[in-house]
């Protein structure tokens, strides 16, 4: 007699830790989520309405059998509903009333779990090898493509399809090397996107949503490092990225301090700890001097803290050099801020700091003002990051195959 077993997928809520950033203007996203072992090791809570005799207490973990990046049923459904993305259309049918999907380019969409909808059909789930192939395709053929524009649309497509990959991973409780390999690439993509798209309007890029998924992926990855069998060749890189992205977070700091001493003393993590200390001490000069030693991707993780750091420097100098007869060379200030002369003068103007015709800065604690958030442009802070990208490609950045490992001196 056939038994029907209904399976529900429920998400375990995350515990969110508030950032303990000690300064005004620091990004609210500087918080990271607790490593939730019940969530990432269990990957899902599976409830069976009927338990097969002799298997009480055992959970059924679905195993995917779909060998394509998009299940056939979904591809046909989206074709009939005219819901294909232009990146998935078969060449030559783009202008048809109902374009056809290219099985080699179509990728499973992320879909929210809904009542009455079974998300655990084996034929709709992709096994780990296919999921990894999908992630690599999204990086190599979509994110890194020089022919697909604008990049905001590229990001939106890749972001959604990576959510679909993660959903399949959670349902199947993917773990081990395959899980780590995919998470590492997802995190690099999200960090790079947080830098590249930071000045885009909210309708095209939502930094809060990007941050939430980045924090979740970081939490999952660090838990895999802690509980999986090593060695993990990229652990140093991602432990440092986590701290740089979450500067000022006591939880992130505590996590690093609990690492094995041999790992904690590696160059990447030691530098991240020094930068975090300068951040907490409100020492912007040391902070920016150390930031010049970071690699490109590390600078991408750090860049959202740069504006508040430079604001602190101008405020401290506005108090320390507040004198009617005191003049500070604009060129020297630009060196401290690691900005061009014109950008330095523009930033001074934003905060009410006077720059005279002789390129001398006139600091005054009474004149220093807090600007409206809308007048601050993140791209003002990009020079320290952009100069490190040089000839690095998106493919090499996200796959971690960069000569970027060599630090700036």
Structural features, described:
The protein is mainly α. It is 47% helix and 4% strand. It has a 3-stranded antiparallel β-sheet.
In terms of DSSP E residues, the strand content is under 5%
The backbone outline, from C-alpha atoms, is: globular
Structural class: mainly alpha
Sketch the topology as an H/E string, one letter per element. EHEHHHHHHHHHHHHEHHEEHH
Biggest beta-sheet profile:
3 strands, antiparallel
Give a topology summary.
Elements (H helix, E strand, L loop, with lengths): L6 E4 L26 H4 L4 E4 L23 H9 L47 H16 L7 H22 L3 H21 L10 H21 L7 H11 L4 H8 L3 H4 L2 H14 L3 H8 L4 H7 L3 H15 L7 E2 H8 L3 H10 L3 E2 L4 E3 L20 H7 L4 H6 L10
Antiparallel strand pairs: 1-2, 3-5, 4-5
Relevant terms:
409 residues, mainly alpha, three-stranded antiparallel sheet, 17 helices, disordered N terminus
What's this, in brief?
This protein has 17 helices and 5 strands. The protein is mostly helical and 409 residues long.
């Amino acid at each position: 007699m056939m038994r029907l077993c209904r399976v529900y997928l429920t998400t375990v809520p995350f515990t969110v830790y508030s950032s303990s950033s000690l300064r005004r203007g620091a990004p609210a996203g500087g918080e990271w989520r607790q490593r939730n072992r019940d969530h990432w090791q269990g990957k899902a809570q599976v409830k069976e309405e009927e338990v097969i005799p002799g298997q009480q207490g055992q959970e059924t973990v679905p195993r995917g059998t779909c060998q394509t990046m998009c299940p056939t049923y979904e591809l046909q459904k989206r074709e009939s509903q005219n819901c294909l993305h232009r990146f998935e259309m078969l060449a030559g049918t783009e202008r048809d009333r109902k374009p056809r999907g290219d099985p080699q380019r179509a990728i499973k969409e992320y879909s929210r779990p809904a009542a009455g909808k079974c998300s655990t059909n084996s034929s709709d789930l992709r096994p780990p090898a296919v999921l990894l192939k999908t992630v690599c395709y999204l990086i190599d053929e979509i994110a890194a493509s020089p022919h697909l524009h604008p990049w905001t649309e590229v990001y939106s497509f890749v972001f959604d399809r990576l959510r679909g990959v993660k959903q399949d991973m959670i349902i199947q409780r993917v773990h081990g090397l395959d899980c780590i390999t995919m998470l590492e690439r997802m995190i690099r993509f999200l960090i790079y996107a947080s830098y590249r798209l930071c000045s885009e309007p909210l309708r095209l890029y939502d930094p809060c949503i990007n941050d939430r998924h980045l924090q979740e992926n970081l939490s999952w990855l660090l838990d895999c490092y802690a509980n999986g069998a090593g060695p993990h060749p990229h652990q140093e890189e991602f432990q440092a990225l986590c701290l740089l992205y979450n500067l000022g977070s006591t939880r992130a700091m505590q996590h690093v301090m609990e690492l094995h001493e041999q790992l904690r003393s590696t160059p990447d993590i030691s530098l991240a700890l020094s930068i975090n200390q300068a951040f907490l001490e409100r020492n912007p000069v040391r902070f920016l001097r150390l930031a010049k030693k970071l690699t490109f991707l590390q600078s991408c993780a750090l860049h959202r803290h740069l504006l508040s750091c430079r604001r602190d420097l101008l405020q401290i100098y506005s108090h320390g050099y507040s004198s009617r007869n005191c003049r500070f060379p604009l060129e020297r200030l630009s060196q401290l801020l690691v900005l061009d002369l014109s950008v330095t003068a523009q930033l001074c103007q934003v905060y009410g700091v006077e720059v005279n015709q002789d390129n001398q800065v006139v600091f005054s604690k009474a004149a220093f003002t807090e600007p409206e958030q809308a007048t601050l442009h993140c791209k003002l802070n990009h020079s320290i990051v952009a100069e490190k990208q040089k000839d690095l490609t998106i493919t090499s950045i996200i796959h971690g195959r960069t000569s970027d490992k060599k630090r700036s001196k």
